Amino acid sequence: KGSGKPKKSARTVGDVLGKYHPHGDLACYEAMVLMAQPFSYRYPLIEGQGNWGSPDDPKSFAAMRYTEAKLSAYSELLLSELGQGTSEWQDNF
Predict the structure, then answer these.
(1) What are the residue boundaries of the Topo IIA-type catalytic domain, all occurrences included (predicted)?
(2) What is the topology classification, in CATH, of domain 7-75?
(3) Which of 54, 66, 3 is nearest to 29 (CA)?
(4) DSSP characters over the chain
(5) How confident is the chain (93 residues) per 10-residue block, as mean pLDDT?
(6) How distant is the alpha carbon of residue 51 from its chain centre?
(7) Residue 49 forms beta bridges with which residues?
(8) Where are the domains of the chain?
(9) First-to-last C-alpha distance (Å) of the chain
(10) Per-residue pLDDT at 85
(11) At CA 55, angle to CA 21 and CA 11, rounded to 5?
């Protein structure tokens, strides 16, 4: 939750790999970095602590063991709308 304190990025990446996408930690972390960079998205989906890169060199972010993250207020708003029933959900596996 965005209201809590940030978690280590390595922990979040590990949870994602273990539960949803078992293919590679670097791809997962780079996607997370992109969602945390305020210069990449108009509304960042992740609030990051640590070195998440700069507009001059977006790939200059720190390793996941040095960064922490939590959901931004905007992403919490998006997730809160999932239960409104605007589309039908069904299992795809």
Answers:
(1) 1-93
(2) Topoisomerase II; domain 5 (3.90.199)
(3) 66
(4) -TTS--EEHHHHHHHHHHHT-TT-HHHHHHHHHHHH-TTTSSS-SEEEES----SS-TT-PPPGGG-EEEE-HHHHHHHHTGGG-SS------
(5) 86 95 91 96 95 94 96 92 80 80
(6) 14
(7) 68
(8) 7-75
(9) 27
(10) 78
(11) 30
